[in-house]
Every structure is written in structure tokens, then in C-alpha cells.
Amino acid sequence: MRTATICLTAWLLSGAVARAQLQEVRVEFDDGGCVTCAESIETRLGRVRGVEETELDLEKGVVRLRLAEDNRVRLLPLVSRVGQGGAKVLQVCLSVRGAVEKDGDAVKFRTGGVGEVFGLEGDLPPAAGEVLLEAEAVDVEGRLLRVDGQCGG
């Protein structure tokens, strides 16, 4: 069985947020032993407008994506493509640019580019503002990111 991991890490940036949101995505997956299914992941992801480079490691069950600086890629449709051939997504880690927003006790992250909004948990940046976040997407559909340095690399 192979596993896949996608992680996000947070670094505060100085300067403006770039237009791109997703910078890099790493997905660990279990292909159920179907090598052909796993090999098709790279092709499906490589067809997404904004994906510049895909790197598939069948031994580790990991696909790593690097995205164009000016992309408008959304996380859920991207991750869904991994499972289209029957693979099970185990972990998603990513690097993404955007802004941390505080609304009372709630902390949210608004991506650059398409402006997706995610809840944040874990080791949060000390103040609201623009960041490059590296985190784990613990709930892609529910839009929740965890920043704790535990995402595999």
C-alpha cells in the first residue's frame, strides 16, 4: 500500500501577497496496489491549467505539484483528481499565499488568487496579515487547515 501526504507550512512574509494562491501541493495516497491507477494521477493533475510541474513517487505513494505564479487553481477540485482513478487520499499538505483574518475568536485564511476561505487551527501566526502558509488540509471539503509543522515532507 502506498500513502500520500499534502502539507502546508506557515511563514510570515514581508511585502504584498502575490496573486497566486496555491504554490505547492503534496498529496499522499493509497493506490490499493493498482500501479496503472497511480500512474494516471500524474497525467490527470498535469492537465490542470496552472499546474507547472508534477512529480510522482510510486514507491512512497506521493505526488508533488508546483503551480504557476499566476494560477487560479482551487484545492478541492485539484485533490479530487487524485481519487478519480480509485486512489484514496491520505494526507494533503500545501504552501499557499494569502491573508490571515481574525473575526472575534475565529481565525480564517483567505487565499490570494481565487480567494478561497479556510478555517485555521494549530500554531497560528501571531497577528493578522499576509503570509505564505504551509499547512495540512485536514478537511478539504470543510475547508480547514492545520498549521503545526507535522505535515510530512
What does it look like?
The structure is a single chain. With 153 residues, this protein is mainly beta. The chain has one domain (11-147): Alpha-Beta Plaits. 14% of the residues lie in helices and 44% in strands. Strands 5-6-7-9-8 form a five-stranded mixed beta barrel. Helix 1 packs antiparallel against helix 2 (75-83). The longest helix is centred in the first third of the chain and has 12 residues, at 35-46.
In short:
The chain has 153 residues and is mainly beta. It has two helices and nine strands, in the order ββαββαβββββ. It has a five-stranded mixed beta barrel with strand order 5-6-7-9-8.
Describe how the helices and strands are arranged.
Layout lengths: L10 E2 L9 E9 L4 H12 L4 E7 L4 E6 L7 H9 L4 E16 L2 E6 L5 E6 L6 E11 L4 E4 L6
Parallel strand pairs: 7-9
Antiparallel strand pairs: 1-8, 2-4, 2-5, 3-4, 5-6, 5-8, 6-7, 8-9
Helix pairs in contact: 1-2
Tally of contiguous helical segments: 2
Oligomer: single chain
How is the CATH topology named? Alpha-Beta Plaits
Note poorly predicted spans: 1-19
How large is the share of residues in beta strands? Answer: 35-45%
Proportion of helical residues = 10-25%
CATH architecture field: 2-Layer Sandwich
Shape: globular
Average pLDDT, all residues: 82
Q: N- to C-terminal separation?
A: 19 Å
Largest sheet: 5 strands, mixed, barrel
